[in-house]
Amino acid sequence: MMVARILTSQPKNQIGMWVQKAVTRCWRRAEVRRLLSSQSKVPQSPTWSIDADADPQEGGVSAEVIDHLERLALVDFRNQEGVERLARAIQFASQLHNVNTEGVQPLASVLEDRALYMRGDSVADGKCTELILANAKTVVEEYFVAPPGNIPLPPHQENLSQQ
Amino acid sequence: MLGSGVREAAAALRLGQLTPTELCQKSLSLIKETSFLNAYITVTEELALKQAAEADKRFQQGKPLGVLDGIPIAIKDNFSTKNIETTCASKMLKGYIPPYNATVVQRLFDQGAVLMGKTNLDEFAMGSGSTDGIFGPVRNPWSYSKQYREKRKHACPDGDENSDWLITGGSSGGSAASVSAGTCYVALGSDTGGSTRNPASHCGIVGLKPTYGLVSRHGLIPLVNSMDVPGILTKCVDDAATVLGVLAGHDPQDSTTIQDHFQPFTLPDVIDVTKLCVGIPKEYHAPGLSSEILALWSKAADLLENAGAKVVEVSMPNTCYSIVCYHVLCTAEVASNMARFDGLEYGHRADVKDSTEAMYSATRREGFNDVVRGRILSGNFFLLKQNYEKYFLKAQKVRRLIADDFVNVFRSGVDVLLTPTTLGDAAPYLEFIQEDNRTRSAQEDVFTQCANMAGVPAVTVPAGLSSRGLPLGLQFIGQAFCEQQLLSVAKWFEKQTDFCLLACHENGHIVKQQKITWSLRHGDLRAHLTSHQFIYIYALYAV
């Protein structure tokens, strides 16, 4: 119904309507044929299942590892939920152990067979100090300013109490 | 006019039927009318009008720059845009003004494209729903189609219209919604594990992920360097080929772009599929695949076969581990990539002065959401000295097996693969957020991330409507750097299915410029339909 209305409002699309009908016929015919033949190339049931027997032991993370990760990543887990999220991520990843990778070389880049482009070792741009500094919150003259360095983060417990 | 494709719009501009400024203004007003979709983070009205005025002059002089001259486009907010805030939908980059344009942005500008704005996404593109960014979730324009509304009302009469809307998919949900709603012709997304194809499929448009190394990543804020590619979202396959022609090719600023010459191409109108061999990878019938997509997939395979193509079932035995492998490689690269955000040079900086480390730590705690922090922590776990071989190297080895699966099927004589894009149609927001981001990504990316693992090109094409009246897409996967063949098959398929885009009408007639007539009441972000205004989708598929 809508088709007719659209097309009649645009007479030049009359041809479009015929194409439309032909296409619809074609598409329908494919459906009928598919119903008639059970020979579809598309498998009609799932060919694999979700691995539910992942080792529940896998997700265990010790307090030391948690503390170590927070220092390395410079973000914290915030709460128990964050720790549980990591445990589930590890469990999920552990399915990889089911794959036999004996003798397989790691693939780091799909362009491994090509030589990467190297540009000539010459200055091509520059003189943009102000532009680059413009996005920093704290600068002095042409320097980014950081608080005092080489002071380790306080131990984990103190960290938590600070929050 | 906004309902048509790039070619039609470009022709109208050349015939003088409308000017770039008029087109730009229509687009701007449509963006305002559909602002409840939350598709745009920044609307670059001033720049758009300026660019359109410049295009006006070029058309007056009869010297347009190229086919995209004067055409409204949108860019995902993880591409750097000179002097325009680029946030990645994260507090970490709120207020960040890049001093340069990403190469792909510059190439679009060089063609005269008119930038309407920066589109919404999951924070740092980590997600598959466009629900996890600081600017809030993106709403799928199809939520407001008359067809869906009526069916929904019938199914659950007590449903609250205000909260009952669908996700766009993600992470390039804003880009997909902007094209789907007709507020621009072309949008750029990024595609690391399916972030362009997934929302394109849920929003009923075309989404192309080019071969890794064909399109520059310079200026795309990285998620996973070995898999990221800029993605192209358009209303039809022809437009995707046009935009690819503009974007593709070596960029000295990105050493991972290949140096071979790229010849832009247009797709023929008559496409012969009789010499084509289409592979149906049986492992892509994954658990959870909806019966509707299965039926559509079967139908498409039969259609190709009936047209004379050789359709064969193939096996890609490592497919089921791909999503797990992706999870490990993605989080590991995220852990390393996100290290750049420390508050010193750009972005958010916490007001902590005790020590550099304390400032870093506070900045990152405040700047990243739970999803990003979760991925950084898992990635660091997989990269720990004691876990490196067990998880990271293991995943890289599995990646080779997955990439080899593709090499093997293509070597066996298969030209393209035909698969589903997603397990089902777009989920309602309230249903989608019942599961966490990782679980959702594992479900949503199951068919898409394999192409990123292998670096091969893939495109999703709208193929039909679900029983709820929502778009369903199918995916074609091609051989590396064989975009022309891939898109030719996609175009052939597009013509057969004749799926029609979301287009809106007033009083049951096409409004002159196919204007979407959504009105807002009391700014309550609700699409309100008055008795004089109807929204119709003319989904002609299987009328």
Automatic annotation (TrEMBL), chain A:
GO terms for molecular function: ATP binding; glutaminyl-tRNA synthase (glutamine-hydrolyzing) activity. Keywords: ATP-binding, Ligase, Mitochondrion, Nucleotide-binding, Protein biosynthesis. Signal peptide: none annotated. Pfam families: GatC. One of its GO terms (biological process) is regulation of translational fidelity. It is found in: Mitochondrion. HAMAP family: GatC. Belongs to the GatC family. Subunit of the heterotrimeric GatCAB amidotransferase (AdT) complex, composed of A (QRSL1), B (GATB) and C (GATC) subunits. Allows the formation of correctly charged Gln-tRNA(Gln) through the transamidation of misacylated Glu-tRNA(Gln) in the mitochondria. The reaction takes place in the presence of glutamine and ATP through an activated gamma-phospho-Glu-tRNA(Gln). This is Glutamyl-tRNA(Gln) amidotransferase subunit C, mitochondrial. It comes from Eleutherodactylus coqui (Puerto Rican coqui). The lineage of its organism: Eukaryota, Metazoa, Chordata, Craniata, Vertebrata. The gene is GATC.
UniProtKB/TrEMBL annotation, chain B:
This is Glutamyl-tRNA(Gln) amidotransferase subunit A, mitochondrial. One of its GO terms (molecular function) is glutaminyl-tRNA synthase (glutamine-hydrolyzing) activity. Residues 34-145, 167-487 form the Amidase domain. It catalyses: L-glutamyl-tRNA(Gln) + L-glutamine + ATP + H2O = L-glutaminyl-tRNA(Gln) + L-glutamate + ADP + phosphate + H(+). Gene3D superfamilies: Amidase signature (AS) domain. SUPFAM superfamilies: Amidase signature (AS) enzymes. Belongs to the amidase family. GatA subfamily. GO terms for cellular component: glutamyl-tRNA(Gln) amidotransferase complex; mitochondrion. It comes from Eleutherodactylus coqui (Puerto Rican coqui). Its main location: mitochondrion.
